[in-house]
Amino acid sequence: MKNDEIKGNPFSPGDRVVCIVDGEWSNDLGIPCQQPKKNCIYTVFETNEKNISLVGFDPFHGYDYRGFAPVQDATEMQEDETCEQVAKEAETEYAKRKEQKIEVVV
């Protein structure tokens, strides 16, 4: 058994985390969703034993906690402003895609 499987999810709501993976985050339902960006800092909204959800993201979509690390350096806070802008842009894009998908369905 791996060490992270023994420990479980180390994060709690309110923790600040940095995304450490560069790649695609999947959505089990096939719905467009916001995707965390590598090196961006986020705040944990909720947790379960394997996933975390992030403040400002769809609360029903969890991300594998192993794709994140705790924020340890206050100098990284400057990156957070850029990431907040990226999150806002992603949220706008998500709304547009969702609207387009609704138009196609109807």
Structural class: alpha+beta
Helix content: 25-40%
Detail the poorly predicted runs.
1-6, 102-106
The helix count comes to 2
How large a portion of the residues is in β-strands, by DSSP E? 15-25%
Give the radius of gyration.
15 Å
Mean pLDDT: 75
Q: Largest beta sheet: what is the strand line-up?
A: 4-3-2-1-5
Q: What is the strand tally?
A: 5
Q: What best-fitting shape do the alpha-carbon axes yield? A: globular
Q: What is the H-and-E element order?
A: HEEEEEH
The major pleated sheet works out as:
5 strands, antiparallel
> What is the CA–CA distance across the termini?
48 Å
Features:
alpha+beta; globular; disordered N terminus; 106 residues; disordered C terminus; 2 helices; 5-stranded antiparallel sheet
Short description:
The chain is an alpha+beta fold and 106 residues long. It has two helices and five strands; from the N terminus they run H-E-E-E-E-E-H. The longest helix has 29 residues, at 77-105.
Please tell me about this protein's structure.
The chain is an alpha+beta fold and 106 residues long. The protein is 32% helix and 19% strand. It has helices spanning 3-7, 77-105; strands at 16-19, 41-47, 51-54, 63-64, 68-70. It has a five-stranded antiparallel β-sheet. The longest helix is centred in the C-terminal third of the chain and has 29 residues, at 77-105. The termini are far apart. Mean pLDDT is 75; it is low at 1-6 and 102-106.
